[in-house]
Amino acid sequence: MSLHYLPAIVLIITVLLSLTSLSLKRHHGIAYLICGGGLLLTMLSLFMQIGKTGTTSELFVFDAITPFLSLILLIVVSMIWVQLYQWLEALDERKEEYYLLLLLATLGSLIMVASNHFTSFFLGLELMSLSFVGLVAYSGREFKGQEAGVKYLILSAVASALMLMGMAILYLQYGTLSFNDLSMQGASGTLPSWVTVTGIIFILGGMFFKLSLVPCHLWVADLFEGAPLATSALLATLSKLAAFVVLWRIFSLGEWHTHAVIVDIVAAVAIASMLVGNFLGLLQNNLLRLLAYSSIAHFGYLLIILLLAASPTTAFLTSTFSTEAVVFYLVAYLFTLVGVFSVLMQMPQIKTQQDLTGLFWHKPTLAITLALLMLSLAGIPLTIGFMGKFYLVMTAVNHQMWWLLSALVIGSVIGLFYYLRVIMMMIKAPDGESDFSGLTMTTNGQLLNYLIIFLVIGFGTFPAAFSQLIETLSRG
Amino acid sequence: MISIHWLLFLSLALFSIGVYGVVARRNLLFILLSLEIMLNAVVLLFIAGSSFHGNPDGQIMYLLILTLAASEVAVGLGLVIHMYRQHHTLDVDKLSQLRG
Amino acid sequence: MILLSLLLIPLIGGIVAWYSERFNPDYPRWVALASLILCWVPVLPYFSAFTLEQMPQWLVDEPMRWIPRLNITAHLAMDGLSFLLVILTLAMGLVALSSAWTEIKKRTGFFYLNLLWTLAGVMGVFLAMDLFLFFVFWEVMLVPMYLLIAIWGYENRQYAAFKFFMFTQAGGLLMLLSLAGLVILHYQQTHILSFDYTVLVQNPITGDLAYWIAVGFTVAFIVKLPALPFHSWLPDAHTQAPTAASVILAAVLLKTGGYGLIRFVLPLFPDAAKAIAPLMMTIAGVGVVYGAMMAFVQKDLKRLIAYSSVSHMGFVLLGCFAMNIYALQGAVMQMLAHGISTSALFVLVGMIQYRFKTRDLDKLGGLWQQVPRLSAIGLFFGVASLGMPGLGNFVAEFLVLVGSFEKYPWYTVVAASGLILGAIYSLIIIYKTFFGPRGDSVQTSEVKGAAEVTDTSNREATTLLVMVVILVYMGVHPQPFMDMVQSNLLQTIAKGLL
């Protein structure tokens, strides 16, 4: 048993500990602290692994990137955790189980990120999805939450079933479930190659559900709106990151880009997601629905990365550059998104864009933070979101994917409309109707806002150290 | 021995029946049942693959999927009961509060 | 550190200005004034460059490390062209400050923050010699400008600000793609990865892709200029912007487009520039005439001046693509002269609006009797705008026409006819506002009591008179300005002729 399993073990112990304390005595503060302590220890154990030599086992892979991505995941979860106490206090429900489910979902996503085998991937996925059902339907008395819970249950089950079907077909074809053996193209195939393609399409279908890409995107807005805010934040970050990392790994290990049909499908989905996501975002008034559609578009941009291997390259820089682009983009997007959610969690009564009218003149820190985050989502320079987009554009131009790039440009321009509208609302002169007296700023929240500004602007303006770190990780 | 193709087609057919059930049925209970059919189709294919290739991976997947099916139904039924208590209906079309 | 401090002073000054509002709403403008004056300190020594026999390639050159992973540097440098435009920016910053002095009463701190940050961004654009850095400044300066229009503008400000942002941002995204393409193509052809202008300019890229990359850059720049198909944001933005923002917009923001063409498109893509020149000359010629014709049907004084800008900037485009040293010098002169004359007109309109609460041409008229000093200065700048010999605008337009006649006689004829139309709309401004029968608004304000309407204050008069002096100086003795840019422009031309 090597050091690499330590984070997962720490998390499992935390889960057990919080379960025990829950059965002995219910106390919100204790549950909060146990959860936080566990997350902190997990982060420490992950931090120790960064830069160490990795190993690959049958079920898991621990290369240089995996602990880094896991650490990013944990940071995101912790940023949500910081605000959780206050947010749950306002919720009229039992509170302690939320932490339990949160930890389990985190564990599931950690397993997914490190998985190297369909079995471990499947277990991680289900651990995460089933915990998410609980998290989504957490406030049982709310009809909306319940509806979202039912929808998520059915959709995640369908997605899992699709992916399982794909796995079964690939298993039938190759007789193995390991990601490493996926690339044995055709050599040992027992069935014609269309069977492989069918299997891949099944897996992609399930993944598109998880990543809420067009045409499997219809659920995501309902879910974001209906689920409790913290859950939406987790869904948007944790579940999508884990799913994308796995998709990326399978896609490159399995060399799926060699199937022309698959490349066409992914390209079509990417273009459709960029355009449809941004376009539907235009029509939204609810902030959470807006974020949902923006996340569709952003994962559409990310899909470009999957297709890189299919296009000619000019051997620009090093072969790891596309890896760096993925990591940079993911990190940038996740930090931005979790920032948006934590700002929204600080003002629970604000639901629509109209509610934001004049926020800037009442709560400047909150408004500036939100405005910077919107600029980061839109990809305006000096924000971390821009650096991510720049990396993406550099790689895509390097591979001369003009179609996808033109969709990216059009999508970004459409996207600007609604990101800018949010900012516009905030700087409008207050009309007297908007009442922000209910907004109390806590030191906790204030500090978090400064941290977010630091992350978004600091890394956006001086990305040198960060890009260097990612480069070293991608090399090793 | 039956050709592996037939098993694939049988499994795909079962899977399609399950998908149809999820899409067409309005009752939450039946949707859960259809999901089970989908999972069983997958399980069938895993077992077939396992026996075809003569390695046990597929059978292990079978056990895992069985566990998943059980836990999914457990969570699902919990939601079903909750929904029935509050609304006295299991029709998913009634779940239409969230519109964008 | 000289150029860096030039950028940092307004940035820091802006934050101080914002903070100082807590103590007194009057403090921010003094802070803004102080930091703008402080900005002159780093550039003052370089005025001696006017007397140099031979201009060096760079007056100042400050490369700094930034993102080593992609070999992106924070390379700031200043040559004659940058120097002239930075001076213009700083001078017009003072003019904008003067026009905002009493006009802006609400949220002063945040206003001056945005004003100073816009200026810093524009100076960054003029000084950045790394393409990535240039792009960053190019995009970032939009944000404070957007806020200036959207918060302190007139009735329809949100729409106008939005349109302004969207147009330039869309152009910017195109530039981002072209930028990536340029660097990668350059890497392919030379195996040097660099975003640095000085490196890229040594080996201009070739091939079909280079053509499209050049088109991408050009489109981004002519959106800002603005040239014909992409001009529609300008009238809206100008009409709705507060006077200070209009001044900045007309005086320096539009010049970033022309600067980009001269600095980047011509030397980096000599072949492609030659290929698209006929198209650009057409756009420019049509733009000159179209802008002038649109100008004289406008009822709104600000809109009229905005369309006249479209017409004048057409000359800049014409000069850029004529591939001739006279035309290029003319384009630079036009950028300077237009910057001064048009922003002076906007200041005047701001004063008129402040006094008579309207900028509708039909409601104005007969201002001379009430505000003679203001009207006299207005007459001067109206005449300047039509290209009266002896003023900077005449020199500029004449040079452009002379330069482009050699290769493109017909475009020149069309553009020259735009000058006649220019005379018409300039005279319309002069006639309808300062002379003629008194308009409704003028009369009502008189009824309310003549004491309310005062002539130009000393601050306003000084600002405008300084601008008059500069414009006259440029008209009668333009040689120093041309010498400043001559060596660099000659190099550009030489590249194009090879």
* Distance between the amino and carboxyl termini of chain C: 36 Å
Main sheet of chain C, how many strands, which sense, barrel?
Answer: 2 strands, antiparallel
Mean pLDDT of chain B: 87
The biggest sheet of chain B amounts to: none
Percent strand of chain B equals under 5%
Tally the helices of chain B: what do you get?
3
CATH topology-level name of chain B: Helix Hairpins
Mean pLDDT of chain C: 87
What is the number of strand segments of chain C?
4
Distance from first to last alpha carbon of chain B: 54 Å
Shape of chain B: elongated
- What is the CATH top level name of chain B? Mainly Alpha
What is the domain tally of chain B?
A: 1
Tally of DSSP helical segments of chain C: 21
**Secondary-structure element series of chain C:** HHEEEEHHHHHHHHHHHHHHHHHHH
Overall geometric form of chain C? globular
N-to-C series of helices and strands of chain B: HHH
Strand order of the largest sheet of chain C: 1-4
Percent range for helical residues of chain C?
Answer: over 70%
The CATH architecture of chain B can be given as: Orthogonal Bundle
Radius of gyration of chain C: 22 Å
Summarize the helices and strands and which ones pair or pack.
The complex is a heterotrimer of chains A (476), B (100) and C (498).
Chain A: H1 6-24, H2 28-49, E1 55-56, E2 61-62, H3 65-89, H4 96-114, H5 118-136, H6 143-174, H7 193-210, H8 218-226, H9 229-253, H10 260-282, H11 287-307, H12 321-346, H13 359-362, H14 364-378, H15 384-398, H16 402-427, H17 443-461, H18 464-475
Antiparallel strand pairs in A: 1-2
Chain B: H1 4-24, H2 28-53, H3 57-87
Helix pairs in contact in B: 1-2, 2-3
Chain C: H1 2-20, H2 27-43, E1 60-62, E2 65-67, E3 72-73, E4 76-78, H3 80-100, H4 108-127, H5 131-140, H6 142-152, H7 157-190, H8 197-200, H9 208-224, H10 233-240, H11 243-268, H12 270-295, H13 301-321, H14 325-356, H15 367-370, H16 372-385, H17 392-405, H18 409-434, H19 440-447, H20 458-476, H21 479-497
Antiparallel strand pairs in C: 1-4, 2-3
